[in-house]
Amino acid sequence: MNEIKIASWNINSVRLRIGQIGEFVAEENPDVLCLQEIKCLDHQIPREDLIGFGYPHIEVSGQKGMHGAATISKYPLTRMQTTFCPRDEARHVSTHVHTGKGQDFELHNFYIPAGGDEPDAEVNPKFAHKLEFLDNMTRYFKSRAPENAPMVLVGDFNIAPHENDVWSHKQLLKVVSHTPIEVERLARLQAAHDFTDCARAIAGDDEKHSLFSWWSYRSRDINKSDRGRRLDHIWVSPALRQAAIKQGAHKIHRPCRLWERPSDHAPVTQTLRLSA
């Protein structure tokens, strides 16, 4: 049985936090790291640093000063041509990961739009954009379902779907990221390809605070107030469910959120046990 560790992290500026990336990969040694909100153009990513960390294979979808996603890997990557975003925004990278360990897989790295402040698509174009992006994802993965291809979806989904994915279900029901319409759209996406939410499949529905991956910068002591949300997700297709759902295979690395000048997100990791 061969193991592959995948990490996902909204880094909130790859150039600003390249040192933290180096510290994280030195500690956790993921085989593949998916970054979101890199906030730079393709040629501006600190490629030499990433290669120096042991990741020579790099695929980037960059944008000046905002958004952006990058997948860096120890193993070769082949870029897939996919389009999900109805605007000219860099929000995803899709690749084939060639592990050389008996089972290659598709890796889809997403930075789903946050959606603004008002959860009403008629008055808030940002929220309408978020729902349209989710609908595009749903159509694509539904069309791919008959293939039964091994797929991993990761990223900052900007939705906390379960009542225990937020610090207060009642207080956040009308707050973007936890509204019923967002939860329903994400559930529709998950059902379109029968994806498994690795964190919930392993931890169960009752687990709460230990699964949070995001805390506002306004929270000075996240461990004291712990007003977090689970916005960062790793899903697998049916072909990889057995490889993913093992106790201890999914982790949220909360200590990274306590580093000096951190991202407001903690990285999450998922280990796959692949059959040769």
TrEMBL record:
Site positions for Interaction with DNA substrate: 265
Keywords from the UniProt entry: Hydrolase, Magnesium, Manganese, Metal-binding
CDD domains, alphabetized: ExoIII-like_AP-endo
Classification via SUPFAM superfamilies: DNase I-like (SSF56219)
Active site (record annotation): 111, 156, 265
Domain annotation Endonuclease/exonuclease/phosphatase: ranges: 7-265
Keyword Transcription regulation: no
Sequence similarity: Belongs to the DNA repair enzymes AP/ExoA family.
Name of the molecule in the record: Exodeoxyribonuclease III
